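Record type: monomer structure entry
Structure origin: computed from sequence
Chain ID: A
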Amino acid sequence: MAAARQTGERPALVVFVDRTECAWLRWLKHGFRHCFVVIRDEPCWLICDALKDRIELNSLHLPRSFNLADFYAGQGHHVLVGRTARDLPRDWLTLAPLTCVSVAKRLLGIRATWVLTPWDLFAHLSSKESLRWRVVSGSAVPKASAVQARF
């Protein structure tokens, strides 16, 4: 864990959810209408869920043996397991609406302006070029994900 702290990287999950309370989000790809991020910060997991009217922050104190990715996948969600990239140099100000995806990108250290929807984020993180993430899924994994990395 000391090496992870020195590089700024921490274990993280991105959970993709189908259910949404917003009627205008139903046009988004099935299974990818919302996302939230879970980051390991010893001794707990921190959950950041950006909703339409608030951002919920919660901490989970779970035994190390508990597999949180499998838990979310067992609920039928698509889950990506990887690490944050927190040592990026400062960049120019990026203007973007406050969405679940924009919050996830900030938390994970992702600078991809074309990533706007949960599906875009999933496809970007699970691409062959992104070897930092692996898919854990409770249902069929979409074709855009060809992850070879191991976490």
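Annotation 1: Residues 1-6, 145-151 have pLDDT under 50 and may be disordered.
Annotation 2: The helical segments are 2-7, 68-74, 100-108, 118-125.
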